[in-house]
Specification:
The chain is an alpha/beta fold and 712 residues long. The protein is built from 28 helices and 21 strands. The chain has an 8-stranded mixed beta sheet with strand order 4-3-5-2-6-7-1-8, with helices on both faces. Strands 9-16-13-10-12-11 form a 6-stranded parallel beta sheet, with helices on both faces. Helix 21 runs antiparallel to helix 22 and helix 24 packs antiparallel against helix 25. It starts with 5 loop residues before the first helix and ends in a 9-residue tail after the last helix. The structure holds cytidine-5'-diphosphate (CDP) and magnesium ion.
């Protein structure tokens, strides 16, 4: 009998579910719910929420906070007045998988009573009572509904992660919470009432500095908001203090002992060390699934491939190992597979980013492999450089990771570093707001009516230089006036769910008459790696890229890929069903070394932002083949990131003076034009720029005269 591949296997198992299976699963889920540590304190928790308008709930990962508490509150009557329960997550995958799980637990179709919303995807309806969403999405909702009036309860989950959006959200919610409590006794102002949810009211509030939300909120009576902050870290003090001594409750977790193993000598090749450990566990240890922490999609995909390669070399009886990747940009239908129990006799290896640290709990894990690394955002305010780099985890992260092995019984954790190295790790990670570019944050706060960003009541103040730099960049982009107020362009930029620089590019393109092209370009720039270049087929993938490559740069190359794919798809659709055409498109992607998931994501983003710009009344015209006009538009949009070639072939970023190289993945890597604009800076052993286009320096002088002058 031929051995079954992982994919075939899972497809067979999940699609042929009988009625009996369905009831068995329902019963099992009920049992699991009852056994969760949090189930024992349901009544007490509901009482605590009733008695406290702000509450901090601390509980170990896996105790049932995220999936159960919203259901308890719903049952406890917190939606009775028509309000809904909103739960924010730092990560998209968590919002999606948890919403699916909770819909299943409640026995309702996803998107009805239980739903989720993330950027570019809204799976909720008028009936939705429990809504999972990313923290960034709730911030966006506040732009249109400053008092978040449809929510009776807002739960900020995973607050210990301290992502930039969580921190901003906490500050905003503090205001909204205050305002909604006060509005009970507030003055009624009918004119304001009528304008509450439109941009007009928003603009009026902008004059009101920090108390903007408060004043506007007093105009209408709102029911008070129940605010819950949930965290997996034991230290609730920082949240409690920030919310004026708010009450904190601890939920007992259930943790079995976990044996920790360290390596004897430092590992130089992390991937190889991880592979050896995975197979060592698989061949020598008893049953139980393995969770491996890796730094990102690329690393996960290559480890997955290597596992399959090595499995083929094993005798047939030892091949019962299934791999399941989980990372943020994984399509949602694949994300859920990770939660399915492994078939009898098989062992699962879950290859995850730090998403599996606390955001999602996967049942069945007994072994954890932790290389001790994580991809993190860092920001250099002096250089104005924001980049993703791989850094060592903190002690807190290492402990969270090893804890994943002891959820259901005693477990083992293999740290791929030496014990002495652990001692050198920092205790906890620096909040993201201290190591991030703040352009988007400053723009959003301004759009929310908070003009004095420097004195905003952040839970942790960001670096002052970083704020000032962001204000300066926003001014250069025309989003902020000389009086430090948000301009009309700034308002438009804040409305688009994109990086502010990309939003600006769309506005500029509508004036240049190439918005059709720029929409595509921005959608393609907003997704991870469009090109798929497996190590063993580097040559073939490079050749495939050549057929799309534009000598003028990566932006036009991305445009070519999208347009060619779209033409293929549209033609296919005239003779095939939509489903068949989608399938053919995936095949086309494979043949052309294009990452079909990324392309699909870009197509989705494109249709969403197309709707956005149409609603804003921007004119979607095409410049057809006028690539010169398009590149001039790129220069007018991305002038903050321009660089000039130096005599030695390196580039000097004009604004920061930073010396960079063109990334080898760029179509301009060899061409080395005199002057370029780029979108991304990455640091490895060198500083590289990616997504690069050739421009003429004189265009900068003409199109961004406030920054560039004619050079001698
Ligand atoms: O939020 P917290 O870490 O406290 O726990 P949770 O995410 O509510 O998870 C509670 C339980 O539900 C865990 O034991 C998970 O194994 C299970 N769960 C699941 O089986 N499938 C999901 N998609 C999510 C959670
Ligand atoms: Mg949770």
């Amino acid at each position: 009998m031929p051995s079954m591949s992982a994919n075939n296997f899972s497809r067979n198992t999940y699609h042929h579910q009988t009625k009996g299976d369905f009831f068995a699963r329902k019963q099992k889920i009920e049992q699991q719910r009852k056994n969760l540590p949090i189930a024992a304190v349901e009544r007490r928790l509901v009482e605590e929420v009733r008695n406290n308008d702000t509450l901090i709930i601390v509980g170990e990962t896996g105790s049932g906070k995220t999936t159960q508490i919203p259901q308890y509150l719903f049952k406890g009557g917190f939606c009775r007045d028509g309000g809904i329960i909103g739960i924010t997550q730092p990560r998209r995958v968590a919002a999606i998988t948890v919403a699916k799980r909770v819909a299943e637990e409640c026995g309702v179709p996803l998107g009805q009573e239980v739903g989720y919303a993330i950027r570019f995807e809204d799976v909720t309806s008028g009936q939705t009572k429990i809504k999972y969403m990313t923290d960034g999405l709730l911030l966006r909702e506040a732009l249109l509904d400053p008092y978040l009036s449809k929510y009776s309860v807002i739960i900020v989950d995973e607050a210990h992660e301290r992502t930039i959006h969580t921190d901003v959200l906490l500050g905003l919610l503090k205001n909204v919470h205050k305002a909604r409590s006060k509005s009970i006794n507030g003055v009624a102002n009918t004119e304001h009432n009528n304008n509450l949810n439109n941009g007009h009211a928003l603009e009026e509030r902008i004059d009101n500095q920090n108390d903007g939300i408060l004043k506007a909120c007093q105009a209408k009576k709102y029911s008070p908001l129940k605010l819950i902050i949930m965290s997996a870290s034991l230290d609730a003090r920082v949240f409690s203090e920030y919310f004026g001594g708010a009450r904190a409750v601890h939920v007992q977790g259930r943790q079995f002992p976990v044996d920790i193993f360290y390596t004897h000598k430092p590992e130089t090749d992390c991937i190889d060390a991880a592979l050896i450990t995975i197979f060592q566990i698989h061949l020598e240890e008893g049953p139980g699934d393995i969770l491996v922490f890796l730094t990102g999609q690329e690393e996960i995909e290559s480890v997955e491939r290597l596992i399959h390669e090595r499995l083929r070399q094993l005798p047939e009886g030892s091949r019962k190992l299934l791999t399941f990747p989980i990372f943020s940009s994984l399509p949602s239908e694949k994300q859920m597979k990770v939660f399915m129990p492994s078939p009898a006799g098989y062992r699962k290896v879950i290859l995850a980013t730090n998403i599996a640290e606390t955001s999602v709990t996967i049942p069945g894990i007994k072994y954890v492999v932790d290389p001790g690394l994580v991809k993190a955002r860092t920001y250099d305010p002096k250089m104005g450089v924001d980049s993703l780099i791989i850094v060592t985890t903190s002690k807190a992260q290492a402990l969270q990771r090893s804890g994943r092995a002891g959820r259901e019984g005693p477990g083992k954790c293999y740290r791929l570093y030496q014990e002495s190295f652990f001692e050198k790790l920092t205790d906890s990670t620096l909040p993201e707001i201290r190591r991030c570019d703040l352009l988007n944050v400053v723009l959003q706060l301004k759009a929310l009516g908070i003009d004095d960003v420097i004195n905003f009541d952040f839970i942790e103040k960001p670096d002052r230089t970083a704020i000032v730099n962001s204000l300066w960049s926003l001014y250069l982009l025309g989003a902020v006036t000389e009086e430090n107020k948000l301009s009309d362009v700034g308002h438009q930029m804040a409305r688009l769910p994109l990086d502010p620089v990309y939003s600006k590019a769309l506005i500029v393109a509508s004036q240049f008459g190439c918005l059709k092209e720029m929409l595509i370009c921005v959608a393609m720039l907003s997704v991870e790696s469009i090109f798929y270049a497996p190590r063993e087929k580097l040559e073939e993938s490079r050749n495939a890229l050549k057929s799309f490559a534009s000598p003028e740069g990566d932006h036009l190359t991305l445009l070519n890929v999208y347009l060619t794919a779209d033409e293929f798809f549209q033609k296919n659709k005239t003779v095939n069903s939509e489903e068949k055409a989608e399938k053919n498109l995936r095949k086309w992607c494979k043949d052309n070394y294009i990452n079909s998931r990324s392309l699909k994501h870009a197509r989705d983003i494109h249709s969403q932002i197309l709707r956005n710009v149409e609603q804003m009344g921007l004119c979607v015209t095409s410049c057809e083949d006028d690539t010169l006009l398009f590149r001039r538009c790129l220069a007018a949009s991305f002038f903050l990131k321009a660089a000039m070639k130096q005599p030695d072939g390196a580039y000097r970023v004009t604004l920061s003076g930073l010396i960079v190289q063109i990334h080898p993945s760029s179509v301009l890597f060899r061409a080395k034009p005199e002057c370029i604009v780029f979108n991304e800076l990455v640091h490895t052993n060198h500083s590289y720029v990616r997504n690069v286009s050739r421009i003429d320096y004189l265009w900068l002088v003409e199109l961004a005269p406030h920054l560039y002058a004619v050079q001698d």
